[in-house]
Amino acid sequence: MKYLTLFILSMILWLMLTFEFTAANLIAGAVASLICSLFFGRLFVSNVGKLLQPRRYYWFVIYLFVFLWECIKANVDVAYRVLHPAMPIRPGIVKVRTSLKSDMAKMLLANSITMTPGTISVDIIDDCLYIHWIYVRSEDPAVYTAMITGAFEKYIKKIIE
């Protein structure tokens, strides 16, 4: 089922990108979608039924606004640190434990953290993410975990798990 879903989604994407409904383009899109499905189908989501739940799309839109707000705040913070004459930084790598279970959810969390200025995901090992942080504000794991993942993790759970 996931191979078929990936084929259909790939074909829809092909048609949206080319926006040409000729026989040659449809054949080329079908061949490209078939190749994509054969090579990457095993990596596609296993529970395809989740893609059809509208509430996940609602939470994804909310997540985009939360992500945008966190990026704006982080950009202002990094700009402050760069422009301040004393350059107040306290870099370090912190170990953040996550309650997310699926690899896709952990990957989305790690990428969201990396795309937020001032933090970079270094590694994911089991339920732990190792994050390089430009200014480690606390030595308490519960505090810095809430500061780094708090805004993202609850929405990712609603979207993916």
Describe the structure.
This protein is mainly α. The protein folds into 2 domains: 2-48, no CATH class; 53-160, no CATH class. Helices cover 61% and strands 12% of the residues. The chain has 5 helices and 3 strands, in the order H-H-H-E-H-E-E-H. It has helices at 2-18, 23-40, 54-83, 103-115, 141-160; strands at residues 92-97, 119-125, 128-133. A 3-stranded antiparallel beta sheet has the order 1-3-2, covered by helices on one side. A hairpin with a 2-residue loop joins strand 2 (119-125) and strand 3 (128-133). It starts with a helix and ends with a helix. The model has no long low-confidence stretch (mean pLDDT 89).
List the quaternary state of the chains. single chain
- Uncertain parts: none
Q: Strand percentage, roughly?
A: 5-15%
Rg, Cα atoms, Å: 20 Å
What structural class do the secondary elements suggest? mainly alpha
| Topology, number of strands | 3
The percent of residues in helical segments reads 55-70%
Total number of helical segments? 5
The biggest sheet amounts to:
3 strands, antiparallel
Mean pLDDT: 89
From the N-terminal CA to the C-terminal CA, the straight-line distance is 19 Å
Features:
single chain, 161 residues, mainly alpha, 2 domains, 3-stranded antiparallel beta sheet, 12% strand
Briefly say what this structure is.
The protein has 161 residues and is mainly α.
